[in-house]
Amino acid sequence: MRPPIWRRVQVPSDLTLAKLHRVIQAVMGWYDSHLHQFIVGKTYYGVPSLDEFSELELKDERKARLDQILSRSKQKIVYEYDFGDSWEHEIVLEKILAPDSRTRYPACLGGARACPPEDCGGVGGYANFLEAISDPDHEEHEEMLEWIGGEFDPEQFDVDLVNQGLKTIR
For residue range 107-127, what is the model confidence (pLDDT) as tens digits? Predict the structure, then answer.
């Protein structure tokens, strides 16, 4: 997306990918309404399906820890959310720091721009949504404003509000 929507988050190195999924949902403001997966090279992690006919061959994200997957700065993995909208997030390990006993983890340090609303249709749908809500003459202007609840500021980001949401993750 241009301009990018991003978050900088500190998490413990022994965090499982299952908990990282919860962290991402919280920092992005989503509601965990869709399937997701982590892509590490050619390996896929997620919630293993109980359905033997599932097309996804996923390793169990509850058993995979970050320190087993990311070990040096600049390493990347992909988090894909909502396979229909296909939101792909690039997760980059910036630094490995010693834990600070005064910091409660996970902690959001910063970010930019509002998260796209759930079910807005991926990158293209989000662009259309923004166009519609910003133009009072757009044929879908009123419908989109009603759908989103009256207003939406794509530049809005509140690190304190995000950190409030992260307090529920242990």
Answer: 999 999 999 999 999 999 999
- Given a contact cutoff of 8 angstroms between Cβ atoms, the answer to whether 127 and 5 are in contact is no
| Domain boundaries, position 137 | 115-154
The count of domains in the chain is 2
85 and 38 assigned to the same domain: yes
Q: Is the pTM of this model over 0.70?
A: yes
Q: Is residue 1 assigned to a domain?
A: no
- pLDDT at 53 > cutoff 60: no
The tens digit of pLDDT for each residue in 144-163 reads 999 999 999 999 999 999 99
CA distance 121 to 82: 10
The C-alpha atoms of residue 38 and residue 67 are separated, in whole angstroms, by 15
Which pLDDT does position 50 carry in this prediction?
Answer: 56
How far apart are the C-alpha atoms of 91 and 24, rounded to whole Å? 10
Under 8 Å between Cβ of 65 and 20? no
Please check whether residue 131 lies inside any domain of the structure: yes
β-bridge mates for residue 77, sequence order: 91
What would you report as the CA-atom Rg of the chain, rounded to the nearest whole angstrom?
A: 17
- Is 137 inside any structural domain? yes
Q: How far apart are the first and last CA of the chain?
A: 31
